[in-house]
Amino acid sequence: MKNIIKKWILLLILFINVAQAQDFKGRAVYISKQIINVNFNVDGKDMSDEKAKELKEKMSKMFEKTFILNFNKTESIYEEEQKLKGNGSRGEAFATDLEGELYKNSQTKRYCKAEEFNNKNYIISDGLKNYDWDLKQESKNIGGYTCFKAISVKKVTNKELEEYEVEKEKQRKNKTNFLNLEKPKDEIITVWYNPEIPVSHGPSQYWGLPGLIMEVNEANLIVLCSKVVLNPKDKKSIKSPRRGKTISQKDYDLLEETLLNKLKDENGAIQLNVN
């Protein structure tokens, strides 16, 4: 009789743990910052260090954005935070547009992203990138959590090299060199993940580690988690976006490229008619 009772107690504990795991949700706030690494010059002369630094800081501030990652054990939604129209008072609610909403599923290893292009709604659906993370022993504190380092190498593509050569040739022909283009090369992506929150999620397309990704350093981009809330009271429904035509990432990129090519003139410059 005692053995039967013990078995029922163990089954009950297991059921409770499974139910809690399924209901587990969290929210992470990320600040995305662009690092401006270009060299500025005017009329062929390098800009002074002071002026260049000031301009880079202003440009970096322009591109600074806040994103929200809502997640459960296997799914997440990543979207830019935008203030609702109002008087700007404290406690003002926040909202996000459907466009750009990114859904990831670490179990099925797929993602869906809502995009609007050429006045049409699309749902980009494709497989998640395999980052082949190299886990390191190095650790540091982020927001009170002990986080560990992982790196991945992003190989430069032939397309990126071709686009670089095309742009350099345009600058040569048009004699425009306000920005000194840097030849693309392999990049090391460095992230810091938090095993205390055992989910395989992260900002943007990043995922695949044994803990929530808290920081990303990639070339000219830094994404840093500023706040984590576990099991928030106002739990957001985490569902794949559905409003729009489903399309693969490759086909969507082709759509964009085709339209942009139509807008270019004989010199490769994009011509926009604004009425």
Walk me through this protein's architecture.
With 275 residues, the protein is an alpha+beta fold. Helix content is 25%, strand content 37%. It is built from four helices and 17 strands. The protein has helices spanning 2-23, 49-62, 158-174, 249-263; strands spanning 25-34, 39-42, 45-46, 65-72, 75-80, 82-83, 94-95, 102-105, 110-117, 120-127, 134-142, 145-154, 179-180, 187-194, 212-218, 221-230, 245-247. The strands form three sheets. The protein has a twelve-stranded mixed beta sheet, sandwiched between helices. Strands 3-2-13 form a three-stranded antiparallel beta sheet, with no helix packed on it. The radius of gyration is 23 Å and the shape is globular. Residues 6-21 and 83-98 have low confidence and may be disordered.
Q: Percent range for helical residues?
A: 10-25%
Low-confidence stretches: 6-21, 83-98
Q: How do the strands of the widest beta sheet line up side by side? A: 11-12-14-15-16-1-4-5-8-9-10-17
Strand residues, percent: 35-45%
Class based on secondary structure composition and strand pairing: alpha+beta
Straight-line N-to-C gap? 84 Å
Radius of gyration, whole Å: 23 Å
What count of helical segments does DSSP give?
Answer: 4
Mean pLDDT: 78
**Main beta sheet: strand number and arrangement?**
12 strands, mixed
For the secondary structure, the number of strands is 17
SSE string, helix = H, strand = E? HEEEHEEEEEEEEEHEEEEEH
Q: Sum up the overall morphology in one term.
A: globular
